[in-house]
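Rotation project, supervised by the postdoc (A.L.). Task for the rotation student: set up a whole-complex structure prediction and record inputs and outputs verbatim in this book. Inputs entered:
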Amino acid sequence: MIRAVLALIARDLRLSGRVGGSGTLSLVFFLMIVALVPFALGPDLNLLSRIGPAILWLAAVLATLIGLDRLFQADEEDGSLDLMTAAPVPLELVVLGKVTAHWLTTGLPLALAAPLFGLLVALDGTAMSSTALTLLAGTPALSFIGAVGAALTASIRRGGLILAVLVLPLMIPTLIFGVSAAQAASGGTVPFLVPLAVLAALTLIAAVVGTLAAAAALRWPE
Amino acid sequence: MRLSVDNLACRRSGRRIFANLSFALGPGDALAVTGRNGAGKSSLLAILTGRLRPDAGRIVIADVGEASLPECLHAVGHRDGLKSSLTAGENLLFAQRLLGAPRLSPGGALERLGLGHAHDLPVAYLSAGQRRRVALARLLVCARPLWLLDEPTAALDTASQAVLAALMAAHRAEGGLVIAATHQALGLAGAAELRIETAAAAPVADVTEDWA
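Outputs recorded:
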């Protein structure tokens, strides 16, 4: 059972690196948004470093949406989903494997690159590491919430826009606690651990609810 | 494995596609599902693979232990489940690891279908007939008792059709089951025929009553 899920994760990772995969695309998109902000706001370093964590988090939310619409749609179109239904594993585990692969190719690179991109918005060392830590804890929630929308729009052609409209409101709590945790680290009235713990809790809730809901949406497409 | 289907009915988007479909298959049996376009051949196969919920009726399987019906079958249809950017070998290896019960190696299965040279080629480079043969090679990399084939000879040349007929005969000789939706003779010796005939376009009476 574990072997089947590992095979699925390995295939999705391999696909994301091949032609037509979203591989490094979300990371480039993340960099573009973060790089655009200083041009729009002007070279006010104090302003940039104050809103820096918020910019990184906004960019992460938008970059997660890249490739999310193809998460299940690509498999639905070419019949791979029928293959996964026939596998001797529950559909919930299939969803868990696919979302894990999605996070490994989008959320994890974003979190790892955040300290580097923090330089563009004039973050100091503490703010950089805390933002990276909150992204590490919070981006799985974004992937799991997105998976529900991706499963619901799997059989709709051009469902990308509907997907964004569906899932962005659901990502708001994650965004709020992610940014407030990152800002709490660089001075504030709330200790850093409180919003971080809430963020981790949101990720765990999204992992359970998202997996079950996405599997239910995929199971009976009509 | 034994499969029996009792009074199966299918409804899609409020329209009755077929009703009162019954058949039973035992080890080594084959069933050719025929009917005109849109009669519901693919819908019947979709119900058996578990991708579509039947409107009524019962599907019972026996002699397979605790496995559910989707875990006992291979389905090869129009949507072949192959990823264009992966090689034929990678696609088959993934299917083998996902489905379990390994039998032939991906290379060996491709060899049997005359595609040994395509093992390291991305599926995107293959022609429609070659793609179909890679999908058929999936039947050989994992051992499963029931084969569901939807127009399996589409895009196949005559030599490959003969290979497929030989594979199906060997599968049945080992006690396997074959259900094929087709318009052509497949070389299934002694296969039962199930002809789906309904007025597919007629709306179901009780649906309109529901709305009234």
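Student's summary: Chain A touches chain B through 28 residues (CB under 8 Å).
Supervisor addendum: The radius of gyration of chain A is 18 Å.
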